[in-house]
Amino acid sequence: MNSSHHVPNERDTTHRALTLTRVSDTEWHAVQADQVVGRGDASRRPDGRLFVSIDAWHDTVFDRIAHAMLADLPAPLHTLVDESDHATASAWQRAGFTTARRDQGYLVPTDPQVTGLLPARPPAGVTIVPAAQAEQGPLRALERVIHDEVEACAGWQSIPAQVLPRPAGTLVVDPAQYAVARQHDRYVGLIRVSPPRRPRIGLIAVRAELHRHGIARALLAHALEALHRDGTTAAWAEVAESNTAATALLEGIGARHADSTLELVRR
User: Fold this and answer.
1) What residue ranges do the domains of the chain occupy?
2) What CATH class does 3-103 carry?
3) If we measure between CA atoms, which residue out of 262, 43, 256, 252 comes closest to residue 160?
4) Ranges for the N-acetyltransferase domain (predicted)?
5) What tens digit of pLDDT does each residue of 33-58 get?
């Protein structure tokens, strides 16, 4: 794949001609005076949504890359923008994108004296299996059940875009990131905590028939207590603005709203 969009009448602030080239199926370059002055990228998520991003020096370059990508790619297209980045949001709006959803970012304290989650007591008949101790087979089976339940109800579009769903049957990437809730001989809930510099709570999920039994709260208590023991003072989590239950859970343990991410779409 190597197609060009020549733009003889469009010039940036230095008044030099700009050439747009699709250098691969998923990447576009804006070239001026033999220098790359902007890039566009596209990636398809496991749930089928096609996300685009643009890194450009000037508004004119951004607009030309957006024009080329919109001409080459099928709708709908999605992108993510920090809500406080008004310039980038405006650039995407010029290209015809509108807000589809808003995800709230939270700093979640780990100290049980702050969260009030000590001691972490799951419901009767439920035990918490710590990270790295879950069995691969039952964990994969639980992921498939949760994947199907999400698809049957709100769909993965209800999950923050930063939380990448995986197709049913896909191997768990790293079981060390998962703690699970076990009821008798089956796994019924999970929490995933990614371990970068600031740990991120990627997903908390419980089988549908066991919602509102306190299992999610027990999983969160367990994960935060483990982080606290390791010296981590706060974790990061994203919640869809429409997910009032998750928002109430986080705010109820002292989580602080830190920023918001917009998912924009062009249909």
Assistant:
1) 3-103, 105-260
2) alpha beta
3) 262
4) 126-267
5) 899 999 999 999 877 899 999 999 89
Tokens of 36: 């790359």
Domains 3-103 and 105-260 share a fold: yes
pTM above 0.85, yes or no: no
Angle at 199 between CA 197 and CA 200, to 5 degrees: 130
For residue 172, the 8-state DSSP code is: P
Decide: 253 and 118 in contact? Cβ < 8 Å: no
Q: Encode pLDDT of 196-221 as tens digits.
A: 678 999 888 899 999 889 999 999 99
- Residue 213: CB partners within 8 Å, gap ≥ 6? 123, 126, 206
- The rounded Cα 137 to chain-centroid distance in angstroms is 25
Count of CB atoms within 10 A of residue 216's CB? Answer: 21
Closest to 125 (Cα-Cα) out of 79, 185, 176, 35: 185
